[in-house]
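Try it yourself: sequence plus nicotinamide-adenine-dinucleotide, in.
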Amino acid sequence: MQPFIYNALPGRVIFGSGTLSQLEQEITNLGCSRALVLTTSQQRDAGERLVKQLGDKSVGLYANATMHTPVEVTREALDVVAKSKADCVVALGGGSTIGLGKAIALNTDLPQIVIPTTYAGSEATPIIGQTENGLKTTQRALKVLPEVILYDVDLTFSLPPQISVTSGLNAIAHAVEALYAKDANPLISQLAEQGIAALARALPRIVFDPEDREARSDALFGAWACGVCLGAVGMSIHHKLCHTLGGSFNLPHAETHTVVLPHAAAYNASATPEAMARVARALGVTDAPQGLYDLAASLGAPTRLEQIGMRQDDLPRAVEIACASPYWNPRPIEAEAIGHLLANAFAGKRP
Ligand code: NAD
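Structure, out:
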């Protein structure tokens, strides 16, 4: 066994079907009685139903959560928090809504209960990304780690299959990078393998039948496992590239992860044979980067950066930004090789 250091994160997780009925009790357990519910505008109806369910335990709904947590939206939401005298937030949705809950917690230290409805994994991390003047910055702060995660499988049936696929591959990306992290440890690596396997098993079934309860349950468990990996250990070139492409070129979050992942894995493969063997084993294939590419392609997910809004002329600038302040990576960051990686991702070449 290699030596390691592991910092466990606090948090309460409730996982199951119909668990939404436990929300009132969870609010009470936190010593709270005035919950502000958060959603995106697309999930407003679900938010309104939740406010109704909570009755006098809720002070209302703020339904304007937006991807990449723009600070203007946070300011508006903080105003609602102050005026309504909310004593906790309940974030119902994907990473965008959870991001807003975290931003409120960062500013007010209010407790958060999060009810994830995608597979992005933000609920399990003390990480917050925020955008201001078109620039996205991220930070780690224990203050933003949600106190309670309430997973209710029933709420995920409505997630369209194609968003389920890209969101699930976004989660898998956390686990792949966790397996070759500088601060990897045996507990998180085990969870990473389990998370990849659960999602790789579930996603084809969800595409075939979005109401497959067992597959939805497996995928949500996989999302939690992969989110824990993201929260526990450092990420490398894959997350740096996605951060660059999303933050500076406005590419969509989950789709960017989906397209870049096989190429980032290929970039690191020769430096991380043990991690690649574990990814391949979890996917049930012999070659990890090819297995990741084939999984995405077979599920009809995008495989080319060009498909999701990247312009070829912007590739050199993306290389420059990604190499300017790189995250630690198992293989040294070489600008020319990163250029090849992005060119392959742009063209959708199988690794
Ligand atoms: P999202 O939250 O933007 O959701 C995508 C769309 O799907 C939204 O319109 C949403 O309302 C809708 N939706 C969500 N669940 C649904 C459901 N069950 N049924 C129907 N519609 C549903 O997308 P995302 O990929 O979950 O989150 C992306 C954001 O999360 C990005 O800003 C990213 O940076 C952030 N993120 C942060 C972390 C972290 O640890 N800080 C981790 C992962 C992602």
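One thing you can check immediately is this: The longest strand covers residues 58-65.
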